[in-house]
Amino acid sequence: MSQLAEKIKESGYAESWPPVKQLSFILEKFAEWFPFENVDVLTGNEERITPEFLTKKMVQTQRGGLCYETNALLLLVLQEFGFDAELGAATVNNDGKWALEHTHALVLLQLNDGKYIADSGFGNRLALSPLKLDGPEVISPAGTFRLRTRRTEKGTIAAECQNSQGDWDLCYAFDWQAAPWEKLSEMKQLIHAHPHSPFNKQLLIARASTSGTESINEARQHRKWQNGTEETFSFEDKHDFLQAIRGSCSPALTKAIEAYKARQSSDQDKS
Q1: What is the pLDDT of residue 187?
Q2: Most buried of 46, 139, 169, 211 (most Cβ within 10 A)?
Q3: 104 is catalytic
Q4: Which position among 40, 67, 102, 171 bears the catalytic label?
């Protein structure tokens, strides 16, 4: 059994639990251990997505990643635990506009009672539980989520979240079709290089947990707690930013961000 699977079992995972409870436990642990972060995009790490790369970066070094990393690692772990799991590829929708096609990785699951998805790579908008196709809504500190059969330009299945007005917003759409592992590196290349990529412009760290959500960019830190209260702290300078990073991120991620900021400052001094 892999190091990560052993860690999950040691954290309290039980073989006797129903599958949905097992999946929710694993998703909560992934959210706790692996933040959504795009440092490798900004520093130009072009390594291909392989099990070895993911294990070294995320498990051994204790970094996070984008969807094609966190959900790829999730897929490997779920398969190791015996789940009928495959890689899926979706297209994200932001405020009615489609992002780069098929650049959101997710996990497709077949359980005894139907089809589900698991997603640990959607920023801090995480259900922290699997979503059943045309099944019940799932509530987490990040919001209320559901998975519906819905015809769109980018697929016949839609992941949706409820907005503050009670309406349902489209998060992403896809067809229920397994994607090859090689698709992950294609996603990475597009996210790194495409001018319309949302993740090659500025740093972003995001996480969700059972107590709330957090996001950090180079201008501010935002937290939202489970009871609905929110706070935003704007950074006066680089020192404030790095203090927030050190308080929220693992030593390895902090070191990677510090190196990125040092290189950024050096490039600005030369220009």
Answers
A1: 98
A2: 169
A3: yes
A4: 67
